[in-house]
Each structure stands twice: as structure tokens, then as C-alpha cells.
Amino acid sequence: MPLPYLVWLKDDFMGFMEKMIRQCRKPTGLLGRFVGIGMNRGHNKLRRWGLSHISIKPNAYILDVGCGGGRAIHELAQISSKGKVCGIDYSEEMVQLSRKINKKFIDQGHVEIMHSSVSSLLFSDAMFDLVTAFEAYYFWPNLIDDLKEIKRVLKPGGTLLITNEAYKHEKFEKRNSKWARWGDMMLHTPDEYREFLIEAGYMAVEIDDISEKNWITAIAKKEV
Predict the structure, then answer these.
(1) What's the whole-model pTM score?
(2) For residues 153, 156, 159 and 160, what is the CA-based torsion angle, rounded to 10 degrees?
(3) pLDDT band at 170, cuts 50/70/90?
(4) Within 10 Å of residue 171's Cβ, how many Cβ atoms?
(5) Tell me, what's the pLDDT at 143?
């Protein structure tokens, strides 16, 4: 195969990857809807692994930050059957998809989904028992300030759960780091997770990771 053609294929693939990662950042249009549906299907195991690290009471008030296609909200609404689940996303396309997925719970008044940013949450102080963020933190505008904003809406003693399928470790750096750089994604080591959560004012920070799968979850508490 001629070298110029190989170069063209490489450039074309890189352009496609950059476009896909931009869609993960803020899904828009038909491709964005396709990405949201893919997230719903592709993140089930990761999401359930993350949730296995915490216990959720049936009357819990929960916020899912970066709710994407809404599958996490659907599961959380079933667990917190007597509480309330809210979701936010700054992609209007994802808000519409998430509302469609959760129409039954919305009609019951059990779920509320709105267009909003993690940097300015449209909720009162100390409102939620649990805040979750699945595959969402990579693109937050200001990590420490955004974590503080999440802490504001947590009740005293409330829990933040962050779960991702990409983080900095030796195996990832060798095999998969290019696509993260293409999208200008934030990636951290487990120690850095602990550091930025403590800097944002959280306590009782716990980190678990599975390097073979590139999975990481962080659990942190708001002071009582």
C-alpha cells in the first residue's frame, strides 16, 4: 500500500477519533444521539461495578451529574424507589434522550432531568444524599471548583461516587493514551484522585481500580 495512502488513512482515523471524543464531551445531533445510546449499552458493567462500592437507601435523594443517555438514572430510580433522582447534562440532546428513557419515572414525579452544568448546579444547598458521576469528569471546566459545587448540594455526610473507564496507569499509558490526548481529556492516577478530592474538601476518600479493564472508582464524603 502506497505511503501517502497510509498517511491519509491515519489522518482520517485521527479526525474521526477527535470527532467522536468531542461527541462524548457534548453529544449533539444525530451522531450525539447515537453516542448516547451507545453509552447506555456500553457502560452497564462499569456502572454496576461502581455502584457496588456503596449502599443506597430506598428513600435516598440522588443527583447524577452528566447523565448522558439516562440509563444510570433509570437504575438509580429503581433502587431509590421512595426517594428522588435528579439528572443534569449540559448537552440538550442528552437531556432529551434521558427524559425519553425515564419517561415513566418522570410522569410519576420520581425523576427530574434538566439542562445544566456541573459548574452551576440548579439545586439548593445540602439537598442530596448521593451524587454520582459516571464517565463524566473528564471534561469538567474547573475540576476543583466543580467538585466544591457538588459538595455544596450534598447533605452533611453525603457521598460522591465517581466512576470512569480511563485513568492514568502504566498499562493504559502504553496502549490507550492517544485517544485521550486527542480529546484533551483529564486523566489522573489513583493517588491524584485522592489528592484532588481532598483539595476540594472531601473526607474519607476511597479509591478502587482494576488496571486490566482501565476502571476506577472514587468514593468521598462531605463532612458532617
Answers:
(1) 0.82
(2) 40
(3) confident
(4) 11
(5) 97
β partners of residue 114? 88
75-126 confidence digits (pLDDT tens): 999 999 999 999 999 889 889 999 999 999 999 999 999 999 999 999 999 9
User: Which amino acid, 32?
Assistant: G
Of the candidates 196, 126, 136, 121, the residue with the CA atom closest to the CA atom of residue 158: 126
- CA 106/CA 55 separation, integer angstroms: 23
Residue 61 phi/psi, 5° resolution? -100, 125
- Which amino acid is residue 221, in one-letter code? K
* Chain position carrying cell 442528552: 94
Domains of the chain: 3-221 (3.40.50.150)
Distance between CA atoms of 95 and 158, rounded to whole angstroms? 25
Distance CA 66, CA 117 (A): 8
Residue among 134, 196, 159, 165 at smallest CA distance from 54: 159
Buried b (16+ CB within 10 A) or exposed e, 105-120: bbeeebbbbeebbbee
Report the residue count for the chain: 224
User: Whole-angstrom Cα distance, residue 38 to residue 33?
Assistant: 9
Sign of the torsion formed by the C-alpha atoms of 13, 95, 130 and 156: positive
Q: Are the CB atoms for 135 and 107 separated by under 8 Å?
A: no
Q: Cα separation of 97 and 79, whole Å?
A: 21
